Amino acid sequence: MDQELPEENSKLHDLPKIRKLFPETWHASGICEGRDIIDSGLVGVRVTFFLFYVRRRDSGEAVFEAVVPDTITSWVASAFAINDESGLGVAPSTTKLTVFRPFFIRINLPYSVKRGEKFALQVLIFNYMDSEQDVTVTLKDGDDIGYDFLQKDGTTKKFTSKNMKGKKHNVRLISIPGGGVSKAVYFPIVPTKIGDVILSVTAQSAIAGDAVEQILRVEPEGYRVDRNTLIMIDLSQTNDTAGIKKQIDMQFPIDAVEGSRKARFDVIGDLLGSALSNIDSLIRMPYGCGEQNMINFVPNIAVLHYLKITKQAGTQIENKAKKYMESGYQRELTYRRDDHSFSAFGQSDKHGSTWLTAFVVRSFKQAQQFIFVDEQILQKSIAFLNAQQQQENGAFAERGEVHHKAMQGGAAEGGVPLTAYVYAALLENGVSDDKAQHYLEQHLEEVKNDPYALAIVTYVFHLANSTKKEEALRMLESHKRESDEGIYWSTKVGPEKPKDTQHYFYQPKPVDVEMTAYVLLTYMIRDDTDKALPLVRWLTSQRNAYGGFSSTQVRLMNCR
What does pTM read for this prediction? Predict the structure, then answer.
């Protein structure tokens, strides 16, 4: 229990040097025997070692003086030697260096706190001395320290040099028995500044003392919002040797928290560079129901496809992605029904989903080049899809239910988009369907004002080499839109309005990204790079801050 602070304290022990250095690894460098020292360490454990080059005629001993960090802990070091004639020699045991003092304090800090968040700062005092110590613990206060002290009534107050008369709210008194006993005191505070706030704590008794200074990470209140602005620079298209100048208008939301605005830029010589720099966020372990599992299964295909075409096979990332895909493949089979369809909950659902089965068939076919996928499973699921075709007109019907509607993209509307989506899955598996193609050709005129339906139908017509593919492409190109970022397609009717980027929730519509990606695939089939490049520029400008897209369907198409 904290004691009341008396008006006059007894004489306190002088404070030693303030301890500030608390690394997880101990690195050092220097010169020994006229040679460089190589230093290294292992992240996550307090391990350190120094590697010395010593001449063969020497005794084999190397002495290096270094100042240990301020952490009260033990450091483990091992030794090995390399010789041109004798090879590698390893020391039979490790050496442990213990850093200790009989009286010390430790601050327990969270990883981070929000500005304005009320929390109790815990300070632990350790007494390994023989006698009990009456300890005065002080948290530094003053002007512009980055935090306020929290009072008992829940309000905050700045305690500065002008109002520190009487009881000091930054001081605690506590008695700690000797022999290795530790006790804690608490300082309720409220951070007032964003960034790194220095917390300086001292503990003093009549015969001992310690001082520690650590950093408290204070983050802005509210929600973090990341925006990504991408500019493509093609140096081959300019003769200006003075360079290329681009101006970016930094549009922050009107309700952005004061002091939280940050910006950085990266120069990457690869269209997918920003995605690959955050590749850990793209590789996912599939989990959940039959729909959730596929949402997390698909990004791994995109990563492996990129690694393959860039000749980066055999990497640790590839092995991890394959392992996750194999797990996701086996998990998805548990949601396979007796009729060889797939649904969110397998046999628990009333019917299998036509759309989800087509999605699984498309995804498994793409994954087949990286992991084992039973061809019989694909063929039996394709047979299920054929059974869902309405014989009278060739359209595909949906008897099941998709719970996660957003993952369907524009195909959630059914009718022509659903039939085109299922037919695409069949074509990508080498299966033609004259009835489905006839249905789509017969209904082309009906969807001439539907950009999404036109986009997927045009793509399917090019896959099937339909006689209607040129007509469909002309209809589709009549809906194209142009912007500073490039050419795209949108479901919006009328002139394009300026982006409402002043609000944090602004995001491009996933269906616009999806249909533009379908048009890009169509141009790739036609080998029309001149028309494809403006679409590439627009699509890359729509990526999020991590280099990816929000739409599951777009992620799937990204791997084609």
Answer: 0.63
